[in-house]
Amino acid sequence: MEEKTIFKSGFVSILGRTNVGKSSIINCLVGEKVAAIANKPQTTRTVIRAIVNRPNSQIIFIDTPGIHKPKSKLGDVMVENAFEVSKDVDVVLFVIEATSHEIGRGDKLILEKIKEAKKKTILIINKVDLVEKAKVAELIAIYQAEYDFASIIPVSTVKNINLDTILDEIEKNLKEGPAYYDREEYTDQTTRQLVEETIREKALKLLNDEVPHGIFVEVEKMKKRKTMENEPFYNIDATIYCLRESHKGIIIGKNGAMLKKIGIYAREDLEKMLGIKINLKLWVKVREDWINDSQFLKPFKLPK
Question: Which of 50, 106, 223, 292 could form a disulfide with 61 if both were Cys (CB 3.0 to 4.6 A apart)?
């Protein structure tokens, strides 16, 4: 008699300090771009779900904001979200950098939360392409002495090292369960959210350091229309909010050059992602100290 194949499913949160490469790992595993990536701290602000459908499982990843020392109400919300999500998942991925020499303050804090939650945890040592194998072995020994991880996987998103191993190990640690999402889906984000995240990512990559933390993108209008030749396209109007008038000038740039560049890069990405032509218009507005405005931060908070 043929053995019945068990279908597994479950939720997996990714914890780690800012800039350890959590969003890059998610995008590589999903095979689609669902999380903003930029070489700037705190790129991920909200909790994003990404879905990996395998022959015998559905893995729902929850990308969380990077753990950092909050300097605003927004920062408080981000860190609170990251830890809160991890209480209700089946598996935790704890991402650290291979270039670490010891367990730093931020990683110690995450380890304590993992110990409290008592969840199955897989340690991911990212960016192993940057160090010698002996260095990775040392790091593995240091972390093994601290916690009984379900497994420890050295990876590199740049060199595509061990990414499939992550999925195999997660699947091993999941229980039998249903597919929670349609098998064709790869994220629970709306198209509007994907547009906002893409615009913000381009701004993060192009702007200098003091501006990115204070920007927030909101799609004001998004309508599907048809050209004279009956080709569909999206008309999208979006606003980039910033903290100061001086930041507004930087985002717009000389003769509007910077804003134009952000728009071009965002449009190119979105057309590939959504498979449709896009007419994108961007505006910049100042909303002073929005990162400490409780009303403005409501969309960032997890539902209770």
Answer: 50
